[in-house]
Amino acid sequence: MSAFARSIHRQKTNSPLQSNMSAWVIDEYGNNGVLRFTEEATAPSISSGDDVLIRVHAASLNPIDIAMRAGYGSILLKLRRDLMSLGQNASEFPIILGRDVSGVVVDCGSGVTHFTPGDEVWAAVPPWKQGSLAELVSLSEYEVSHKPSSLSHTEAASVPYVASTALSALVNAGGLGRDNCADKRVLIIGASGGVGTFSIQLLKAWGAHVTVTCSHNAEGLVRGVGADDVVDYTAGDVAAELGRLEKFDVVLDNVGGGSEHWAPDLLKAWSGAKYVTLVTPLLANTDSMGLLEGGVRSGLALSQVAVKNMCNGVFYRWGFYAPDGPVLDDVSRLVDTGKILPVVEATFPFAQVPLAFQKLEGGHARGKTVISVNQEAQEGMAGTEGVEENTSEAGGDGAKELN
Ligand SMILES: NC(=O)C1=CN([C@@H]2O[C@H](COP(=O)(O)OP(=O)(O)OC[C@H]3O[C@@H](n4cnc5c(N)ncnc54)[C@H](OP(=O)(O)O)[C@@H]3O)[C@@H](O)[C@H]2O)C=CC1
């Protein structure tokens, strides 16, 4: 019996009582070569009353997986892991990457009230926890949510991390919500990837007017998921082109760099308008300068640019992913009522995780790259071959339905 067949057999028996599991791990930071498949990864177990143990059916990749594979955030994330292990000085490696999970609950801690074994769930796995490129993942109850019943596991796994990030950025930093968007104009810079395609749909569900930037061959995709105005950033001076449009209430920047300098000028001054960027120097600074200096430098940089923008009448904010199961419950309702659909660009079998990393690393995402961890159980078929790519102009099956 092959390693993958043994792993699938364990998945079918659905027993939480196993000490080892199949997983893709890294034992050092580096390029794709550091990804290693093993059947001997330590399986998570219920260690506290609010733990939920999930058998992973599908996972997906995010830019942070590429970055973490290379060591991004290692200092801050190690500190967080050490705090979680209560000073037991847990070893840094092996690390399991993968921030999205859709799967089935196999065991719960004594204090868990919302989930029971057999429930289908989805969640975004915090970067300081062992990830979802594995048979099992353990999360706390607060991080988990019931999966939308209208989605397959493969579709569901494309949503949680980008949804948690977009909601945290748009609501907590951008001040937007379902009740105040009707008269709002929002600009999304870099809208053709995971965060962008989700944010467009969320903002349209809330009634906002959404303008986006993307490259020309992504226009069909972003219009398919609801974008009102589309500006091709490859066609010329994107800042000048956007400057000809009516000003915005919120800018969500998924690209960073140069846009940080011109995008705040596109906001309505002195009206509470906010520029929110997801591209922040915090983890890179703590990696290169250490916790204290990196943290202080980042704080200073943030306050400097925030004050400068405040003088021009706009707010400047950093947006971050935040774990939040109840927020995913709301997203689940929007999905089940057809307001938000998954945008899956490609699906890779568990055996081909390195190829999925390679695809994501190539850039130009058009939605999400998903890993089918338990494909046989989902489809009742043997074998793990075959990468599926959605090559339609709209990008994914869900997006096509929106057209
Ligand atoms: N702070 C936080 O907690 C988090 C931060 N992030 C960050 O947010 C960003 C977006 O994440 P995600 O959507 O998942 O990333 P993706 O890789 O899925 O998408 C990025 C998209 O941006 C497009 N793009 C690249 N350059 C530009 C440009 N100059 N103008 C407009 N579009 C551009 C790319 O397509 P193309 O190149 O073909 O144009 C691609 O479609 C990433 O940088 C990620 O690291 C994400 C999650 C959490």
TrEMBL record:
Catalysis performed (reactions):
3-demethylubiquinone-10 + NADPH + 2 H(+) = 3-demethylubiquinol-10 + NADP(+); 3-demethylubiquinone-10 + NADH + 2 H(+) = 3-demethylubiquinol-10 + NAD(+); a 3-demethylubiquinone + NADH + 2 H(+) = a 3-demethylubiquinol + NAD(+); a 3-demethylubiquinone + NADPH + 2 H(+) = a 3-demethylubiquinol + NADP(+)
> Where is this protein chiefly located?
mitochondrion
GO MF = nucleotide binding; oxidoreductase activity; zinc ion binding
Q: Which GO terms describe its biological process?
A: nervous system development; ubiquinone biosynthetic process
Matching InterPro entries: ADH-like_N, ER, GroES-like_sf, NAD(P)-bd_dom_sf, Quin_OxRdtase/zeta-crystal_CS, RTN4IP1, YIM1/Zinc_Alcohol_DH_Fams
Superkingdom as given in the UniProt entry: Eukaryota
Q: What is this protein called?
A: NAD(P)H oxidoreductase RTN4IP1, mitochondrial
The organism encoding this protein is Esox lucius
The encoding gene:
RTN4IP1
